[in-house]
Amino acid sequence: MPLVPLSWALRAAGHDVLVAASENMGPTVTGAGLPFAPICSAVEMPEVLSYDRDGNRTTMPREEEPLLQHIGRGYGRLVLRMMDQALALADQWHPDLVLTETYSLTGPMVAAARGIPWVEQAIRLVSPETIKKAAVGELAPELKALGRTDVPAPVLSLDVCPPGMGPRALPGTTKMRYVPYNGRTEKVPSWVFQEREKPRLCLTFGTRVPLPNKNTVPGGLTLLQALTHELPKLGFEVVVAVSDSLARTLDPLPEGVLAAGQFPLSAILPACDVVVHHGGHGTTLTCLAEGVPQVSVPVIAEVWDSARLLHAAGAGVQVPWTEASVETVTAACTAVRDDSSYAKTARALKDEMATLPSPADIVRLIEQA
Questions:
Q1: What is the distance between the alpha carbons of residues 340 and 199, in angstroms, rounded to a whole number?
Q2: Residues 274 and 212 in one domain
Q3: Burial 210-227, CB ≥16 within 10 A → b, else e
Q4: Family, per the entry (predicted)?
Q5: Which residue intervals of the chain are DSSP H helices?
Q6: More confident call, 210 vs 108
Q7: Do 250 and 228 meet the contact criterion of CB atoms below 8 Å apart?
Q8: Same domain, 127 and 210
Q9: Residues contacting residue 141 through CB under 8 Å, at least 6 positions apart
Q10: Nearest CA-CA partner of 260 in 241, 277, 238, 275
C-alpha cells in the first residue's frame, strides 16, 4: 500500500503501471484501482521467517542485531518464491522501469537479470542496513549466477523521513513527501466532522498483533481489550481502528468508546488528538503526515529504530513491547495528552512534510533518471 500514491502519480502522468506481488495481495492492489499480476502463491512473512531455504525450522533470535539479520534473510527467501514468475512477467510485459520498496529485492533482482533500471522507495522512517545486507547475503547463490555480489544501485532512491526527525538524507537519496494510503474508504464516519467534547484517542494495533485464534504476538489481543476498557476512564473518547471481525470480539463496547471497526487512518486521524499503535511503518508515517502525536508500542524488531527516532524527536512516546502493560501504555497516553509539546512537535513535522516534493513532483525526476 505505501507505493500506491507514487503508482497513481505515474498513471496520472500517462505511464502504464502493473503491480506484481503474491496472490494474497490481489484484493489490496485491485482495491486501490491498480492492475495486478500474481508472481507467487499466497505467502505471509511469519511463514517465510520460520523456515530456511532448505525447509528446516528456524529459531527466532532474541537480541536486536541477530533478529534484524534473521528478518533480512527472510526477505531474501521471499525473493526465491517470486523470482521465476517475476522474470517471466518481465519477459512478457517488457517494463522500462521497476519500482519497489527498500527490502523487496525481487525488483532489483529482476532489474539485474534483465538490465532494467529500478527506483527504490523507502516506506519507513529508518531502514536498518543490517536487514538489507542479510537479504543480499541470503541471495548470494542467485547473485553469483548473475555474475554479481550485490543488487545493482537504483537510479533513484526516495526517502520519506522528515528532515526534522534526525539524520540528513543519505548521499544519493531524494526526499519525497509521504502521502498516506490506508485502503479504501467506504464512507467517512459522521463523527469525524463533529466537535469533540473530550480528547479523542485512536487505538489500533495493526493487522497482525491481535488476531483471534492466530495471535502472532502473545498478549496482543489481551492488551487491546484491556486498553479499550481503561482508556475511557482516563477521560478519552476512544476510537478502536481494527478489522471489523476483530471489532466484533470487543462487543459490547464500553461507555466512552465511540466506534470500532475498519477505518483508513488518514480519514479519521484529523479528528483525533492521540494515537496508540503497534509501531507499524505505515501507521507511524500516517500519524506524522496528519500531525497527530503518538504512543508507539513497537512489536517487531524491524520497527524499533523508527519508534526510538519518533521518541527522540518529541513527536510521541515509545513503550517497548517488552514493557507494555495497561499501566505503562495508559501512562504514556496521559503524558502525551497533558504535555502540549508533543502535539506542537507533531504539527511542525506535518508542516515540514508538506513542503517536500509530492509523488507527482517525483514522477518528473523518474522520467529524467
A1: 12
A2: yes
A3: bbeeeeebeebbebbeeb
A4: Belongs to the glycosyltransferase 28 family.
A5: 4-12, 26-31, 45-50, 64-93, 106-114, 129-138, 140-145, 220-230, 244-248, 265-268, 281-290, 304-313, 326-338, 340-354, 359-368
A6: 108
A7: yes
A8: no
A9: none
A10: 241
At position 147, the amino acid (one-letter code) is G
Alpha carbons 82 and 86: distance in angstroms, whole number: 6
What pLDDT shows up at residue 34?
97
CATH code, 146: 3.40.50.2000
| Same domain, residue pair 270 and 328 | yes
Amino acid identity at 136: V
Largest CA distance in the chain: 64
* Neighbouring C-beta atoms of residue 355, cutoff 10 Å: 10
More confident residue, 211 or 131: 131
Is residue 270 within 8 Å of residue 192, measured between CB atoms?
yes
* pLDDT beyond 70 at 192: yes
Cis peptide bond N-terminal to 264, omega within 30: no
Q: What are the phi and psi torsion angles at 113 (to 5°)?
A: -70, -30
Cβ–Cβ < 8 Å for 220, 205: yes
Q: Could you please report the per-residue DSSP string of 70-130?
A: HHHHHHHHHHHHHHHHHHHHHHHH--S-EEEETT-THHHHHHHHHT--EEEE--SS---HH
Contact, 146 vs 185, CB < 8 A? Answer: no
> Exposed, middle or buried: residue 17 (CB in 10 Å: 0-12, 13-18, 19+)?
middle
Q: Model confidence over 114-151: pLDDT tens digits?
A: 999 999 999 888 878 899 999 999 999 999 999 999 99
User: pLDDT of 310-321, one tens digit each?
Assistant: 999 999 999 998
φ, ψ for residue 276 (rounded to 5)? -110, 125
The tally of domains found in the chain comes to 2
Residue type, 222: T
Domain that holds residue 109: 4-154
What's the pLDDT band for 59 if we cut at 50, 70, 90?
Answer: very high
Query: 144-180 burial, b if ≥16 CB within 10 A, otherwise e?
Result: eeeebeebeebbbbbbbbbeebeeeeeeebebbbbbb
